[in-house]
Amino acid sequence: MKQASTGWQNWLLLAGVVVLSIAPLVLIKDAEFAGADDQAGQAIEELQPEYEPWFQPLLDPASGEVASLLFATQAALGAGVIGYVMGLSRGRSQNSSQASIESPSSPINSPAGDKN
After folding, report:
1. Cβ–Cβ under 8 Å, residues 45 and 51
2. Which of 23, 36, 50, 61 is a Cys-bridge partner for 67, taking CB atoms 3.0 to 4.6 Å apart?
3. Which of 67, 56, 77, 62 is nearest to 33 (CA)?
4. DSSP H helical ranges for the chain
5. Contacts of 4 (CB under 8 A, 6+ apart)
6. Rounded to whole angstroms, how far apart are CA atoms 7 and 11?
7. Contact predicate 51/44, CB 8 Å
8. Cα(115)–Cα(111) distance, rounded to whole angstroms?
9. How far apart are CA 49 and CA 43, in angstroms?
């Protein structure tokens, strides 16, 4: 019964993500969505016009779509690494708890002449 509940929970979470992703596009149709970097740069130019950036980007994307693609790729890779580490950690903790239940460490289970 727990398996079915988890399945529905996963589908509801996925539906929530889809709704949250599409809602701004539907509710605010003529809005210009800009990145925080662009907004921060404009704010700095307004506050201190003589400010010089410390460095220039190594790669200047050809268009906003390419920049979005690179950002999405970076986010996907980061999420994959985080998911892998979390799964690895959970698997290790489950294996260690299962191993401690199956074979408790006591002198009764070890051979008498085993010094290693």
Report:
1. yes
2. 61
3. 67
4. 2-27, 36-47, 64-102
5. none
6. 6
7. yes
8. 9
9. 10
Segment 87-100 shows an average pLDDT of 87
Task: Tell me the Cα Rg of the chain.
Answer: 26
pLDDT band at 112 (very low <50, low <70, confident <90, very high): low
Q: What is the mean pLDDT of the chain?
A: 82
Which whole number is the average pLDDT over 59-78?
88
User: Tokens standing for 87?
Assistant: 């799964």
Give the SS3 label for residue 49: coil
Distance of alpha carbon 50 from alpha carbon 64, whole angstroms: 26
Sign of the alpha-carbon torsion through 70, 29, 38, 61: positive
